[in-house]
TrEMBL record:
Its main location: secreted. It is found in: Secreted, Cell wall. InterPro entries: PAE/NOTUM (IPR004963). Keywords: Cell wall, Cell wall biogenesis/degradation, Hydrolase, Secreted, Signal. Hydrolyzes acetyl esters in homogalacturonan regions of pectin. In type I primary cell wall, galacturonic acid residues of pectin can be acetylated at the O-2 and O-3 positions. Decreasing the degree of acetylation of pectin gels in vitro alters their physical properties. It comes from Clitoria ternatea (Butterfly pea). Residues 1-24 form the signal peptide. One of its GO terms (cellular component) is plant-type cell wall. This is Pectin acetylesterase. PANTHER family: NOTUM-RELATED, PECTIN ACETYLESTERASE. The lineage of its organism: Eukaryota, Viridiplantae, Streptophyta, Embryophyta, Tracheophyta.
């Protein structure tokens, strides 16, 4: 008869295996040591890093380069706060890192892109890879070199086969989504002219609107980011000094009616700003009303039996249809909580330090 202790260990093993499957395969980190000589370094001066899982089968000449998110630092003090963390130093980054969602190598979980070369570029500059300041203040030892990091990592990936890509996607979450928007055209110029190249910014479109304090703080904030270096714009900490929105930001079920009304008003402003961008067949949108910040990286929101849907379509299928020009996809959800496929995701502060 099986002993209780053995049974407990077997149960634990099964749970661990299920957890690993849910989080995706783990991919080792690559430190770009040679980037240091080019001045392409993180906030603390350490070399940048990425995770690379090689493509296979028919996907060997296809590439996804996904940029990690993590907010921004807009002045010396806020940059010092993140200098000794994974958002400011490769010395503190997870190794290895789980790949899931758009980076999964499982055909059932990522049907259009599972066998591509898949890269996750770590975020350690605090400026969406835009900074390029030569001088370093010796009193802080802060390096504002995000643009150089992007160039150095792309140079290394090009040497690994990106220069021969037939299909390529630049994507990113949050601040990484903004990186995707800012570097999309440049990314395309690096690749063969015959390659199909598209960009997928996930939660990276940040609008000029008043926050919960009634202040148009985002304009000043981004101005500070720009002057320093070269998820929660509606309720940043500065606008909520007493933390009245903290619970609401983590779990929508804890939002008051007044807070929900403010969120709905922000949605209206977001859609108005988006419409200014115009439309064309080359563009696509998947805008659901789910309370989720970034949906490409997590398997539960990217593609599974309970993933959010628009027009009976998951975001994974929508991106695939749009990328391969099989059909256009431009759908905007009705207002929260109209979509029954949404699931209330409760955020964990340790995974979202920018909150």
């Amino acid at each position: 008869m099986e002993s209780p202790r053995i049974s407990q260990w077997l149960n634990l093993l099964v749970c661990v295996l299920l957890l690993l499957k849910a989080e995706g395969d783990f991919v080792p980190i690559t430190i770009v040591e040679k980037a240091v000589s080019k001045g392409a370094v993180c906030l603390d001066g350490s070399p940048p890093a990425y995770h690379f899982d090689k493509g296979f089968g028919e996907g060997t000449k296809n590439w996804i380069v996904h940029i990690e998110g993590g907010g921004w630092c807009n002045d010396v003090n806020s940059c010092l706060d993140r200098k000794d963390s994974r958002l400011g130093s490769s010395k503190h980054m997870d190794e290895p890192l789980g790949f899931s969602g758009i980076l999964s190598n499982d055909q059932q979980l990522n049907p259009d892109f599972y066998n591509w070369n898949r890269v996750k570029v770590r975020y350690c500059d605090g400026s969406s890879f835009t900074g390029d300041v030569e001088d370093v203040d010796q009193s802080t030892n802060l390096h504002f070199r995000g643009a150089r990091i992007f160039a150095a990592v792309m140079e290394e990936l090009l040497a690994k086969g990106l220069d021969n890509a037939e299909n390529a996607i630049l994507s990113g979450c949050s601040a990484g989504g903004l990186t995707t928007i800012l570097h999309c055209d440049r990314f395309k110029t690096l690749l063969p002219t015959v390659a199909r190249v598209k960009c997928v910014p996930d939660a990276g479109f940040f609008i000029h609107a008043k926050d919960i304090s009634g202040t148009e703080r985002i304009e000043e904030y981004y101005s500070q980011v720009v002057s320093t270096h070269i998820r929660y714009i509606l309720a940043p900490g500065e606008a909520d000094p007493h933390g009245l929105w903290q619970s609401c930001k983590l779990d929508i079920n804890k939002c008051s009616p007044d807070q929900l009304s403010i969120i709905q008003d922000f949605r209206t402003k977001f859609l108005k700003a988006l419409n200014v961008e115009g439309s064309s067949r080359s563009k696509g949108v998947f805008i659901d009303s789910c309370y989720a910040h970034c949906q490409t990286e997590n398997q539960e929101t990217w593609f599974n039996s309970e993933s959010p849907q628009l027009a009976n379509t998951t975001i994974a299928k929508a991106v695939g249809e749009w990328f391969y020009d099989r059909s256009p996809f431009n759908h905007i959800d009705c207002t929260y909580p109209c979509n029954p496929t949404c699931r209330n995701r409760v955020l964990d502060l340790k995974d979202h330090p920018e909150i």
